[in-house]
Amino acid sequence: MIIIVEIVVGVVVVVVVVVVVVVVVVVVVVVVVEVAVVVVVAVVVIIVVVVVVVAAVVVVVVVVVVVVVVVVVVVVVAAAA
Fold this sequence. Notes:
81 residues, mainly alpha, 1 helix, 98% helix, 0% strand, rod-shaped, membrane, transmembrane helix, ABC transmembrane type-1 domain-containing protein, transmembrane
């Protein structure tokens, strides 16, 4: 009878240890995946911000060039007239 109790206790201990290990592994995997998702989202946001800033700078440069060209043309036409 004592041997059966020891076997049952041993099996219960093994099952508990396996469950705890599985839970710990699942928690670690979930945390790693969440961190990876946060990092990927942060990188995407940074890339989008950089692209928007570059696009804004390009637009400003184009506008300045167009204004300068228009002013030069107006001055040249006015001087020629």
